[in-house]
Amino acid sequence: MKKNRILQIIFSIIFFYFILTVLLFVAETVSKGAESSITNLGDAAWYLLATLTTVGYGDVTPVTMAGKTIGAIMMVSSAGVLTFLLGLTFTMLFGRLLPCFLLWCVRHRDWYVFSTLDESTQILASRLAKEDPKAAYVFCGREETISQEYFPTMRHHVIIDEPTEIVIKRQDPSKRCNVFFMTKNGWENDALGRGLLKRGKRPGLKVFCDADHTPDHVPEGMTLFHRPDSIARSYWTSFPVETNEKVILLIGDGKVARRILERGILINVLPWEQSLEYHLFGDWTEFQKDHYELGKIVGIGVKPVDEDGIFFEEREWNESATLLKDASRIVFCADEEEVNLSRMTELRRYFPTNAQVDAYTSKEDDRCRSFGGDDQLLTGEIVMQEKLNRMAIKLNEFYCNKTGGGSGWMELSEFHRQSNIAAADHLLTKIRLLLPQENVTQVTPEVCAMAFARYRELSAERKEACRWLEHKRWMRFHVMNNWSYAPVRDNHLRHHPMLVSYEELTEQEQALDDSAWEILGEIK
User: Fold this and answer.
1) What are the pLDDT digits (tens) for 384-415?
2) Please, where are the H alpha helices in 426-459?
3) What three-state secondary structure class fits 251?
4) Can you tell me the mean pLDDT for 106-125?
5) Is pLDDT at 1 greater than 60 in this prediction?
6) 494: region left, alpha or beta (phi > 0 left; psi from -120 to 50 alpha)
7) Which end is more exposed in the chain, N or C (fewer Cβ atoms within 10 Å of the end residue's Cβ)?
8) Which residues have C-beta within 8 Å of that of residue 335, sequence separation ≥ 6?
């Protein structure tokens, strides 16, 4: 029940009680018969209060028919009024006063605050609590169903039905406060996050928003968590391309499928001796419209000798038996999990294949590798992206120091931040190329040190190949965002003079790509 609705009911009860008091006083004082014990408004109010609480002292009683009728009305309504007042008292005590007291008790701890209470926020909070058990976990708002299985991992948690902006004011401002806006409306999350940062400026405040768009500018202290993009990044990190893979089939055409292809093109930048074919099933018309420069970096409908090829299949996936049989990897990536499971069942039943089968589904299935479920996706590392952002910031600083130019992280546009993040995404691919026998799945300081040592041992020819590969990756990111070549750089028109083949670069320009590999020695 909303706060203003409760106030309306309380005022209505008070008004009803006041009217009955006046009517009882008037009825009893104008009586011509027996003398009434109710001689003033105070007596009338006392009688009605004793009747309401079912105490019934008997020291004052009405004698007129009208007075007795008013008393009967109060007797009949007293049960409902008392039930409401007791319920309101209980709600105030356990729904507001107790949570406020608990917040006061944990005010000197670091906080993780969630704008909603649902299964997604509970999963994320339980994961964060394992990494930071001393912090407090605060949920704003209520849902009809609350799963209790996640709360045991949180030693200090509070559920309070108050706006996020009011809640965080109860914390010690010197402590860290991470706020998560994770409603289903990405634009609303963005607006709430920006508003909170603007009005609640304080050290240690960070905002994380579940949003399905990429704005031109993201304010300091704010991180956007895009689910389909995070699913795609997590997918290629968990299941990187192996050296024997050549043909990848993406069956699906929604947001998840699109992000898997986009991230795949940027992450799977491999040496010229291993190029990939992506065969796409579904309606990819909007993708082709948005990436109209794509044909400059990959083959469209053809497979170049040393570049990847993208094939927009016009036939249905189950009309491609030969392709299914010869594929290295089949990814069912429609936005609807049920569709993926249904298609996978059809594949296993009717089509022979040796391909590795992956499916976007939260359900574990022995027939495939599952990915994208909340249990895999909702972790501090993926949602908060702090490790990825640190590597991107480190890359930018290293490049600026080496070249003597560039801009600091906060001065960068969102596009150039994403450019550094894409470079950080590719670090795992670089490490796997340098350490092919190690089966690396994570970027750690120890692994980076090993990879950098191997990089330093490379011959001049192999280092030249590393430069070529990094330039190829850099070009892919820019062309994917519809940048094109021009003699003079223009960020507004998306023109860049270095969008040419590696061989056309000057020796000084070629040497700039060394920083993307040398950064491995700087990750501690």
Assistant:
1) 998 899 999 999 999 888 887 778 888 888 89
2) 427-434, 445-456
3) strand
4) 92
5) no
6) left
7) C
8) 252, 254, 255, 256, 257, 360
Do 205 and 235 form a contact (C-beta atoms < 8 A)?
no
Give CA–CA dist 312/331, Å, rounded: 15
- The highest-confidence range among 143-147, 395-399, 481-485, by mean pLDDT, is 481-485
| Confidence band for 351, pLDDT divided at 50, 70 and 90 | very high
Q: How far is residue 481 CA from its own chain's centroid?
A: 23
Q: Which of 73, 13, 23 is nearest to 44 (CA)?
A: 23
Task: For residue 495, give the H/E element and its range.
Answer: strand 495-496
Question: For 428-465, how does the pLDDT look when each residue is reduced to its tens digit (9 = 90+)?
Answer: 999 999 998 888 888 999 999 999 999 999 999 999 99
Residues 6+ apart with CB under 8 A from 185: none
For residue 507, give the amino acid letter: E
Residue-wise DSSP of 66-102 = HHHHHHHHHHHHHHHHHHHHHHHHHHIIIIIIHHHHH
Whether pTM > 0.90 for this model: the answer is no
Question: What is the SS3 string spanning 287-334?
Answer: HHHHCCCHHHCCEECCCCCCCCEEEEECCCHHHCHHHHHHCCEEEECC
**283 in helix, strand or coil?**
coil
CA distance 61 to 75: 13
Contacts of 309 (CB under 8 A, 6+ apart): 275, 276, 277, 278, 298, 299, 300, 301, 302, 303
Structure tokens at 61: 């009683």
Cα–Cα distance between 226 and 216 in angstroms, integer?
A: 15
